[in-house]
Structures are given as structure tokens and as C-alpha cells.
Write a structure and sequence with these properties.
Two copies of one chain form a homodimer. Chain A is of the alpha+beta class. The first copy, chain A, is built from eight helices and eight strands. Chain A has a six-stranded antiparallel β-sheet. In chain A, strand 3 and strand 4 form a beta hairpin. In chain A, helix 1 packs across helix 3. Chain A is elongated and about 70 Å long. The interface between A and B is large, with 56 and 55 residues. Strand 5 of chain A pairs antiparallel with strand 8 of chain B, so a sheet runs across the interface. The structure holds a DNA duplex (19 and 19 nucleotides).
Chain lengths: 254, 254
DNA sequence: GAGTGGTCTAGACCACGAG
DNA sequence: TCGTGGTCTAGACCACTCG
């Protein structure tokens, strides 16, 4: 029930509701310290386990962080980075480093990234979207992107090895002014791209790379790039859900 | 650490890791019954609280459901409904009921929806995106959409009252063949639309309406529709994250 | 009716980090 | 050093649901 009846709701739910109200009303502002477990035990006259159930619930909802040592728990901040996508000519292009940097700087953030190159067999997603046999060799450009010093998103691009073996794509540095432009300059024009956007709770591996706490979902954008009629490469972007939104600016269809 | 060291990882983490491995490897298939708390206490020689910590963690990750009565816990299913967005002429249009029904039927689902009409002051999001004073009266078309009998998504459209007061928009039924087309037939052509896609853990209210368990994030798509140069109305769509993905099919930009 | 998970308590020890 | 949260135990009662 949305409106909590005091009668039969579990104690830990009531406690969670009380704290949630304080957070959404702003009495507990982002960054503020949540009362300690001891304080909550005293003020609500419940056991520590009950307090912890309530706090775990709020953590799973992404409202508060876990607490370490004497620091205590804190109400999560929530200021969104915007990723713009627009099929109009000349628009910024996600996945090209200079645009990533330019766009984030214009939003007042300090971006940076680490690039690794790897070779491996095509994972299932890649083989399926690029229409490749499962044992095809692919080059992966793994990028871990930082905003204001904190890891914030992962962008992994998968290219068939045969397509890129003698190109700058296999070099572990930035590609100026971007992969799409590089191919265009070499006569292979991008005809279309398809974005699949979804969300889920992070795998432990992603949670580790992005240093995610409990209760933070990820936004996933799988982009398949087409050169001519055929899918050419795939970029898988994993974004911290509490820090990003993707904006598509599209022309009217009729 | 991605690779779990058996040495100092908490017991409940080890238990969670073990179960997570069984799930991702397929030994515990979607829909399968998770071992009972008693069984896990016995096989892993830990207390019930420890078992529950592990199971809560997996629930928060969206891997298993909560268990009720003798039914036990179950590994979550994950078959995605695809929502197509394409700015090409004649493409299906999200938010128009017949397309919603047609598209989902073609994917093998049984869709339906409940429509309610309400009048209220513009919420902050709406006032901001539509460039309206905060106290503007708006008409809200609230749609709760069901797939195979289960509530699956919410689609609420906000229209300035003055714009739609004598139109079918204020009628609590389907608008054939859709709102965009209706306006186009009356001389007001949609020039563009802007989608803001984000994710978060559901508010308790959304969780209740969509009957969401722990660990299921929602995908949010806020679409601002433009007629001529000006924003005209806004549709806010809240999708169960474990059941949906949105696919944007876009033309190459250069 | 029997077994499941949901809720709750009262304790204990430990690692970590701010003062 | 001292308080915080992290981890863990043993036990209790209840509501629900399946057979």
C-alpha cells in the first residue's frame, strides 16, 4: 500500500518509510549524515537488527550509501550527466573521445579515460549483433571513463579483427576525431546505428569496476554501427544509473 | 575483487557467490526453485541470518524473487519486451495504443491497458519541459499497461488543459489512431520529440503499481513532443527494467 | 497440518577510520 | 582510542500456502 497504515506494517518498514519521507522532503538533504544505528534504536525503540533491515532497504533503493568506520551513512547525491544523441548532421557523437570530453566539460565536469586494447573471441552479444561466427577474433577497445576522478562509465567497442588489423583502432590511444569519422575518411560511411537501451542491477564485475554501492542500477546502451548495409562493430556502454541520462533528440515522423 | 578469495570474504558473500554462479551457469535455471533456507544452513553450515543476508543480496541484485509461504524462492525470468523507436516515416510510434498492442502481439505477448483521466496542477518535470508556469492546469492520461495479465509499465501523458479541452484527449478511451496523428489531422504537425532515458530504483508508489519486488530497477522514458517550435505535451513512461528494452534505430549522421 | 519465509530480539566480536 | 558499521549466532513467533 502506498499510504502506510501504522497498524500492521512491519517495524522496519515503518522506520524505512519515516527516513524515506525525511529524505524526499529534504529534511535529510543529499550528503547529509543519516542517524546512527544506535540513535535509531533509541528513538524508535527497536532492536539493532530491525534498524539494519530498514537501512538495508533504503540502501537497496539507492537512497543512502553504506557506511564505513566512523563516517556513518550518508544520503546519496543525484546530479545527472547528460549524454546527447541526435541523428542530425554535425551533432555530437557518443563514443568519440573528443566529444565525450567536450560535452562533459560543457556540463561542468572533469572527464578523463583509460584505454585498454584486448583480443578475444566474440562474446555472444557481439557475435549475434554483428552476425559473426562465435569463434571470430575481435579487437576490444575497453574504455573506463572517470568524471571528477570517480569511475563513472564503461565503453567497450568490439571490432572484427580482420576489419581493423592495420588501422589506428588497434592502437591504445585516442582516435582523432573518432572511429566513425576515421572510417568515413577512408571511404566507409556509417549508414545507420541501432541503440538498445536497457537497465539492470550490475554484475559483480561491473559493480567492482564502477565502484558501485548497493541499490545503484546501471543503464546499458548497446550500439551497433552499420557501414553500408552490414553491421560493422558494436559498442557496449555501461553507465552508473544514478549519474546519467541519455537524451535522444529526434525529428517528427509525419 | 572480482575473483573471490576464500580467505577473508564474509560467509554470506561466499554463499551469494556460490548461488550466483549456479544461476549464471544455468544449473539454477530461470523459474527454478532456490534451495530453502534450511537446506542452505545445512549445506553451508551457517546460521539462518547469514543465509538470509545472502538471499537478500541476490534479491537486491534482481536474481531471485522473494518467497511466499511454501512456494519458496525462485530464479527470476528475463525475457525482454522490445520497444522500437525510429524517426523514419511510417514507423511504429510509442504511446499510440494500437501500435503498442500491435507491436507486443507481434512479439507474442498479450497486452492490455487501463486508462484514467485526471486534472491537476503541472508537476515540476512537466512545467519545466513544457515551459509552463507551475500552477498551470494539465490533463493527465494515466495508462497502466499489462502484459500477459501482469502490470508492466506506466504511461502518463500531460497536456495543458487549454490545449486539449475540446478534444478527444480528455475522453477516457483510446484515441484512434493516436494523439500525434489526431493533431496532425487537425493541422498541428509534430516537428520533433525529445526522449530522456534514465533508470533508478522505483519509488514505493511505482513499485506498488507495477508490483515490483526487490532488486528490479525501472527504465524511465520522458518524451517531450513538439508541435511547430514549441513543446506541446509530455509523456512519462515507467517500464519494469527486468522486462523491457528500448531500441532506437537511427540514420548515420555523416 | 507441515514447512516455508517474514519478522524480531539480544547478544557477541571485529575492522575501520576520525579525533 | 573509541564509536561506527560489518558480520554472525541462537532462538522465537507468526502468516501464508501447498498438499
Amino acid at each position: 500500500m502506498p499510504a502506510a497504515a501504522t497498524g500492521d506494517t512491519p517495524l522496519y518498514q515503518e522506520l524505512a518509510d519515516a527516513l524515506r519521507t525525511q529524505i524526499s522532503s529534504g529534511r535529510l538533504a543529499p550528503g547529509a549524515r543519516v542517524p546512527t544505528e544506535h540513535e535509531l534504536m533509541a528513538t524508535h525503540d527497536v532492536s539493532r537488527s530491525t534498524v539494519r533491515l530498514a537501512l538495508n532497504l533504503l540502501a537497496a533503493e539507492g537512497l543512502i550509501t553504506a557506511g564505513r568506520g566512523r563516517a556513518g551513512r550518508v544520503v546519496r547525491r543525484r546530479d545527472l550527466i547528460t549524454i546527447h544523441v541526435s541523428p542530425q548532421p554535425g551533432a555530437p557523437r557518443l563514443g568519440e573521445i573528443d566529444e565525450f570530453v567536450t560535452e562533459l566539460r560543457s556540463q561542468g565536469f572533469a572527464p578523463s579515460q583509460k584505454i585498454e586494447i584486448a583480443m578475444q573471441r566474440a562474446p555472444e552479444l557481439v557475435a549475434d549483433r554483428l552476425d559473426l561466427p562465435g569463434d571470430t577474433l575481435v579487437v576490444v577497445r575497453r574504455r573506463l571513463r572517470f568524471v571528477d576522478g570517480a569511475p563513472c562509465s564503461i565503453a567497450d567497442s568490439y571490432f572484427p579483427y580482420e576489419m581493423v588489423k592495420d588501422t589506428p583502432v588497434v592502437q591504445p590511444g585516442d582516435i582523432q576525431p573518432g572511429v566513425v569519422s576515421w572510417f568515413a575518411e577512408h571511404g566507409r560511411v556509417q549508414s545507420r546505428y541501432v541503440d538498445e537501451v536497457s537497465t539492470k542491477m550490475p554484475e559483480p564485475d561491473d559493480a567492482y569496476r564502477l565502484q558501485l554501492g548497493q541499490g545503484v542500477p546501471v543503464l546499458i546502451q548497446n550500439r551497433t554501427h552499420y557501414l553500408g548495409d552490414a553491421p560493422a562493430w558494436l559498442t557496449r556502454i555501461v553507465l552508473r544509473g544514478d549519474r546519467h541520462r541519455i537524451v535522444y533528440d529526434l525529428p517528427g515522423a509525419r
